Amino acid sequence: MAAEGGGKEMNEIKTQFTTREGLYKLLSHSEYSRPNRVPFNSQGSNPVRVSFVNVNDQSGNGDRLCFNVGRELYFYIYKGVRKAADLSKPIDKRIYKGTQPTCHDFNHLTATAESVSLLVGFSAGQVQLIDPIKKETSKLFNEERLIDKSRVTCVKWVPGSESLFLVAHSSGNMYLYNVEHTCGTTAPHYQLLKQGESFAVHTCKSKSTRNPLLKWTVGEGALNEFAFSPDGKFLACVSQDGFLRVFNFDSVELHGTMKSYFGGLLCVCWSPDGKYIVTGGEDDLVTVWSFVDCRVIARGHGHKSWVSVVAFDPYTTSVEESDPMEFSGSDEDFQDLHFGRDRANSTQSRLSKRNSTDSRPVSVTYRFGSVGQDTQLCLWDLTEDILFPHQPLSRARTHTNVMNATSPPAGSGGTNPGSNGNSITTPGNSVPPPLPRSNSLPHSAVSNTGSKSSVMDGAIASGVSKFATLSLHDRKERHHEKDHKRNHSMGHISSKSSDKLNLVTKTKTDPAKTLGTPLCPRMEDVPLLEPLICKKIAHERLTVLIFLEDCIVTACQEGFICTWARPGKV
């Protein structure tokens, strides 16, 4: 399904693709890059990243775009699908010596047409606070590299704060800073605040308040990315040791963990309602994890190499009640646009209504996307049959090929191993009826059902999600293993930590011990998603995927930022 045609067509770069919403089109005039449009020779340089902010200026053209290419950092007016990009006039351009920008983030709370606060992390460990509109550099943090000497992997403003920001490093440490405080002239002294399984949090000991306020040590090897939940209360971190760890940010408690199939996890994002987390990494898979149940509920296989970015599309994530409403609101982490809180909250409440009992006939489909080092963009739909195996199956579609080599024993109700039984259940679905022979039931399977039929449908759904297509699945498995023989032993090598650390890692998290446990269920124990579309859209590895209201933005390591108009938005 992912590959269309053979031979030459396989390597052709796509400029458009079609999904059920319609045609997405690449707008060549809306491509952003360095002013000379020359492809960047990306060997050995840090990934190109893109950040957006809306400054709400009166002209109605308030979007601003920042991206890094090699040693350079650019800041442009983003005209999106409306007008051609004018590359001759960047608002700000900076070239750095001796260090490269690696990541950046705008503060949406403080952004105005006259001033924006942009944090930039660097390969040598420093963090700079700049205002590209006023063209001033206000502060440099970790300037002497006394706090951390390793590369900055991720930097984000703490949601709802004008002054706090969090910085992750390839050392596996995260630091909480306040822009108002200095970093001190000596290395910080720390005092243990809290310790848990494979993490520790320290406070900074000093007479006067100084940065960093907190130091988090998480897992083994590099901490590759973190993302705050939409409500700002939880923090999801993915590390080179292959673990997703989700923390309550304020109480510094570990909420739950998950382990990759193998290799490091590279990227993470939250669903717009905070109920699901998607990760991607060196196992070429996207993995969907339920925040409530703390377990893997699906994996997606479509990429042929490492997955570099995952992001939810809040504009195509649909919540359909008796009168269908399109869901739109603030995306979590990858999308750096600022919308009114009330809009985001109303859509979250619509999504949460999906789980309340008073309004049963509601159907939910989450759309998310992923891009990878295989230069491919994949789009995925997370549908009812995967999300609620016990509940009415209202929107199963053929592209969610649930390939499972096991069907649940009668009486199990279809709970996955390790779900510790607390997934959402409807009464009376303990014995599944005979399996239907298709996992694409009609759309109106439960449009106006009463409670009686929903019990029945719940049981059917639990059967469907376990419907066995054994031979196909086994073949896929073997092919997948073969693809990766050469990478198998490299899981820990790519984290540049010392060999000592790696010895510790091996004793702590032997992959053979986690496989088949709730931390990392076997492939046949969870539904396997097929991508809606899987298209080669670049010559170089892809490093950016952002969903905006009228377009999708992607970027590759050559330094080209592409705008894909949504259906009907050209």
UniProtKB/TrEMBL annotation:
It comes from Corythaixoides concolor. The keyword Cytoplasm applies. The gene is Wdr20. Interacts with USP12; promotes translocation of USP12/WDR20 to the plasma membrane. Component of the USP12/WDR20/WDR48 deubiquitinating complex. Interacts with USP46; contributes to the cytoplasmic localization of the USP46/WDR20 complex. Component of the USP12/DMWD/WDR48 deubiquitinating complex. The lineage of its organism: Eukaryota, Metazoa, Chordata, Craniata, Vertebrata. InterPro entries: WD40/YVTN_repeat-like_dom_sf, WD40_repeat_dom_sf, WD40_rpt, WD_repeat_creC_regulators. Residues 476-489 have a biased composition (Basic residues). The keyword Cytoplasm applies. It holds the Pfam family WD40. Residues 402-454, 475-495 are annotated as: Disordered. WD repeats lie at residues 258-290. GO terms for cellular component: cytoplasm; nucleus. Its main location: cytoplasm. It is found in: Cytoplasm; Nucleus. Keywords: Acetylation, Cytoplasm, Nucleus, Phosphoprotein, Repeat, WD repeat. This is WD repeat-containing protein 20. Residues 417-426 have a biased composition (Low complexity). Residues 437-454 have a biased composition (Polar residues).
